[in-house]
Amino acid sequence: MEPLQNISIQEWNRLYGRFQSLVNKLENNLTQDPELILLDNADLLQLFKISHKTAQNWRDNNVIAFSQIGNKIYYRLSDINKLLDANYKPKSNK
Q1: Is the dihedral of CA 56, 62, 68, 72 positive or negative?
Q2: What is the dihedral of CA 87, 79, 51, 58, to 10 degrees?
Q3: Residue-wise pLDDT tens digits, 4-50
Q4: Which of 46, 89, 31, 22 is nearest to 75 (CA)?
Q5: Using one digit for the tens of pLDDT, what is the confidence trace for 83-92?
Q6: In angstroms, rounded to a whole number, what is the distance separating the alpha carbons of residues 12 and 94?
Q7: What residue ranges do the domains of the chain occupy?
Q8: What DSSP element (H or E) covers 72?
Q9: In contact, 50 and 44? CB cutoff 8 Å
Q10: Strand bridging mode 38-40 / 67-69
């Protein structure tokens, strides 16, 4: 049996409305102040395609600012942008 086979129009509209609400929240978060957007360690690893050890080294060597609550580590998007800006190498015109 297909999971959505017997869904009514009203149920479909309700699900669609919830989906649209989530999309709107995500879009609003993307336009938020980078100081307010937090990424966790898994996000950082995926974003930079680095290992846990590399992320640990960056934290230990003060390469990137972070907050730790219990075992969970968070990074501000603004701090990630600062890291990228600090290591930016403009294109050379050779």
Answers
A1: negative
A2: 70
A3: 677 788 888 888 888 888 888 777 766 667 777 889 999 999 999 99
A4: 46
A5: 999 999 988 8
A6: 58
A7: 7-32, 38-86
A8: strand 72-76
A9: yes
A10: unpaired
Q: What is the distance between the alpha carbons of residues 54 and 45, in angstroms, rounded to a whole number?
A: 9
- pLDDT at residue 53, as a whole number: 98
Can you read off the two tokens belonging to residue 12?
Answer: 């479909």
> Count of residues for the chain?
94
Q: Strands 67-69, 72-76: parallel, antiparallel or unpaired by DSSP?
A: antiparallel
Pair of tokens at residue 36? 């307010």
pLDDT per residue as tens digits for the range 45-91: 999 999 999 999 999 999 999 999 999 999 998 899 999 999 999 88
Amino acid at 36: L
